[in-house]
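A note from the maintainers: we've had questions about how concatenated examples are separated. There is no special marker in the raw files; a new sequence line simply starts the next protein. For clarity in this README we add a label.
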Amino acid sequence: MTLAPPSDQLAAGAPEHRRSARRSSRAPGRTPIGYVFVSLYALLAIAFGILPALYAVLLAFTRADGGFAGIDNFITVVTDFRFWPAVLHVTIYLVIWLIGLVIFVVLLALVVHALRVRWASTGLRFIYYLPGALAGASSVLLWLFVLDPTASPVSGLLRLMGMNSFVQVIQPGNLPAIFAIIAFWTGAGGWIVIMYGALNNISTDVIEAARIDGANAVQIALRIQLPMLRKWIAYMGVMSLAAGTQLFVEPQLLSQASNAVVPNDYSLNQLAYQYAFQQNDFNGAAAISLLLLIVALLLSWVFVTRGGLFEKE
């Protein structure tokens, strides 16, 4: 047998019950301001992302007179003698950059996270982030001085490697590594800060339990931290791959600074630029852009599936 609560207790509990009901009615949900922010992003994405991509698809399958071309534009660009060297250049650059990015960003993030002195880790994160504050073109202009043995602060190292002039430094065989170094210097700092934040989300109880079991710093990194960073590494790979396939500013500026020692069709984006604005063939340029998009999407799919980016915990 249960006893009903006294009426005075019901009366006293009623206001609290109503307050909790009001709070639950204001529970997290979609607020108008959220729609405002999303709508601004959606408009920009449509105007500068989706619509240009759709227009590129239209151009890629049509002729200059507007007629349907089928795959003729793709055959034209693929059989161009400049196409496959540009593919090779971008591929070598991507391999060097992505491998270096994953290894050094994760390693440096682990080092910063391991520092227990607050001012030291904060200072390092600030230093890492500084190069990313420069625009891409500004970074390349800065590197023009770094790569010139007559003005470089590392001229001794360049001369030790047998490079005594700017032309010797920027020989085509050296360019993939040079572009990878420039890209790493520009973009790695932001990723280190992101990886550092991801490391902070790992429960300290898990780390302490591993230490109690006798795991050292290397074992903790390999068996606990790296597996838990897998999604973030996959995300970094997808975003960096999307940026890397768009290689344009670095070789374009080096080409102008070196009086065409670096060819103006070194990368696929440069070749598309040549098609559009030198040959007046916008359909061919659109075909190259569409091929780049397809390859980037396929490679991104590999990163997403292998990295478990959208897997639920």
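[label: protein 2]
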Amino acid sequence: MTKLGLAHLTALELAPARLVTEAARAGFATVALRFIPATADGPAYPTQTGTEAHRALKRVLTDEGVRVSDIELVQLKPGIEIASLAGCLEAAADLGATALIASGDDPDGPRLTAHFAELCLLAASFGLRVDLEFMLWRAVGNLAQAAAVVRDAGQRNGAILVDALHLTRSGGRAADLITLPDHWLRAAQLCDATADAPATETAIIAEAREGRLPPGDGALPLGPLLEALPGDAALSVEMPMPALDASERIATAFNAARHVIEGRDRGAGRRDCHGWA
């Protein structure tokens, strides 16, 4: 059974300990934590092994029965120093994470691919996978570009994070996933959105960061997406909705995603079916 996870962006205003508590209350089995800011002034909550704050977070995770699925967001920019991330990855591994999320932010394809491969090698030393997330406004903006980086990097722990919103807004389809190796598709993020795509890059970014809908409340083809994913792919919900209180938002995210997952007969798909817990 696939255990449902909560992406930190759903309630990024909450520090990790509170996020874990609220996630457990709603029914989530895992959380993803924002260790590295996605924007220059964005919030992030890094920890460091050996500190009391880190130990306290581990205790909360244990007490609530919640696991850390992954951390984010490593932006693969031209001048990134991969070795400087070792402490961050050590802390993630110590919390039990299995992956970290990276974005492609370098227009030089060969250099970006080399940095991704280097990040994979460093991550492997901590037992972590690297999921490359494509977003329409970044250099790696669609599924085909992400797949090319993962393929050319040639690292066993390199994979692609499929976000339902980013896949659709970049022109991708669920059917595009079926041709990719299962080991490239280890995680996916669920949400929903209106049928009308934003017309500008600014609007696209705004939708992704604060304009998503609960799974099942919009027009994204979530059923075909679930059918196209490997049956053991990790599923999480990324649903920032500032209009809702954080606790209500998290509970809504869980209940909506559960309804979508339970309501699908995925036995007809090429891949094995999903469950939730």
